[in-house]
Amino acid sequence: xxALILVRYGEIALKGKNRSYFEKALFNNLxxxxxxxxxxxxxxxxRFFVSGPAAAEDKMIDRLRKVxxxxxxxxxxxTPLEIGAIEKTALEIAADRSSPEHSFKVETRRANKxxxxxxxxxxxxxxxxxxxxxxxxxVDLHDPSFRIAIEIGPEAAFIFxxxxxxxxxxxxxxxxxxxxxxxxxxxxxxxxWMALKRGLSLEAIHYHSYPYTSLRSREKVIDLCRQLTASGxxxxxxxVSVTEIQREIREHCPPELGIILLRRMMLRLAxxxxxxxxxxxxxxxxxxxxxxxxxxxxxxxxxxxxxxxxLRPLLGMDKHEIVDRAAQIDTYxxxxxxxxxCCTLFVPQRPATRPKLQRVLEAEAALDTAxxxxxxxxxxxxxxxxx
Length: 387
Description:
Largest sheet: 9 strands, mixed
Strand content: 15-25%
Helix content: 25-40%
Order of helices and strands: EHEEHEHEHEEEEEHEHEHHEHEHHHHE
Number of helices: 13
CATH architecture of the largest domain: 3-Layer(aba) Sandwich
Mean pLDDT: 92
Radius of gyration: 26 Å
Distance between the termini: 28 Å
CATH superfamily of the largest domain: HUPs
Number of domains: 2
Number of strands: 15
CATH class of the largest domain: Alpha Beta
């Protein structure tokens, strides 16, 4: 017997004349998410339905619940538009969940207004039938042990128990293309996830300092990228060595400006790569005031180096909020692996927290920035990440 999964979406239903564009994008993303399954995706009456092998139902639901734009998914049973058939299926569901301590609630959504019974009437009839067959059960409209949910469509009724929450948001790819500056820390993967949720298609750039940092640090970032592709998307990852850049900064520039100068170089690298890859914006994991390079003055001086739009999804979040989101999207345990990234190397005892642009420019004059950027990008590696 084939499985049938109902996929609901929310925000894109409000897009007016552009709705079909967003729905098509979500349709394609659903198909991509299920590319390793023998599944079929169809759209009916403001919903998507996925049919596939019953043995793979749980795995398909797990993949679908991670697709951006999806509000929730449910495993559903289909019945004819007859109250007797609906009652029979509802009783089967109740029998599966029935025990003396259980309570239940019947919820009906009647999209097909031609059906002769209203939603409250269906609720009462099905509820009464369930109680007659299972007199030990109780009705609880506020906090039931389980629900029997019914949707009356134009051609059939769909009955289900659970709604598995999805991330919501917009389908990946509908709002543009951006470059994520991905470190091995907690913050930037969360920023990337939030950018994906708003419909951005991402590429990622990671700066490393091998051999000063271990290959395990690089493996951690690769694993973070794989986690960001859990919804079935593909994510190009650019691995760029900044070892020589750090050596030059350490040798020729004031130590207290080292982090500021390195981050300016990172934005130069990101801008040049974005130009080559036709990317429209940069995404960073900066959170205002969290570290020395994230004061208003530091952010201003660092950002001055590029005219590109820089998106900072975490700017107003505190560390607890970011950690909670990282745990929710399963990146936290990867991020806390104890391997250093390039930004933890050569950190001065007293980094500048209120840098002046003129002083930074004077210090930077000691560097051949164009040559360093070109050399780093020419040696960059590209990996296409997918789950």
